[in-house]
Design a protein that fits this description.
mainly beta, four-stranded antiparallel sheet, 60% strand
């Protein structure tokens, strides 16, 4: 009923930049918070950044000052601008949205994940 489609991952050298996008579609009444999580091999999934419908943001300490989350409410899209990338940022990045659907009530949805690899 609700789909999240991510794009923008890839291979980048240390110090480089990438911009991730995640568009929500389907039977959506409204979207509360949207966020980005990541999971590296052998590690648990962790919060990277989160933004409320009103634009309040929070970040993991490891990405503060390097990553910026933003959203376009008219397009139901969230973005993650990643600068000064480090090898330890390598992970699969997942989009998350807290959605009030036209059916099914309020639920958390996840994207399929996009790989980000930082390597020289």
């Amino acid at each position: 009923q609700v789909q999240l489609v991510e794009s923008g991952g890839g291979l980048v050298q240390p110090g480089g930049s990438l911009r991730l996008s995640c568009a929500a579609s389907g039977r959506i009444f409204s979207i509360y918070a949207m966020g980005w999580y990541r999971q590296a091999p052998g590690k648990q999934r962790e919060l990277v950044a989160r933004i409320t419908s009103g634009g309040v943001t929070n970040y993991a300490d490891s990405v503060k000052g390097r990553f910026t989350i933003s959203r376009d409410n008219a397009k139901n899209t969230v973005y993650l601008q990643m600068n000064s990338l480090k090898p330890e940022d390598t992970a699969v990045y997942y989009c998350n949205a807290d959605v009030l659907g036209l059916v099914g009530g309020r639920q958390q949805y996840w994207g399929q994940g996009t790989q980000v690899t930082v390597s020289s």
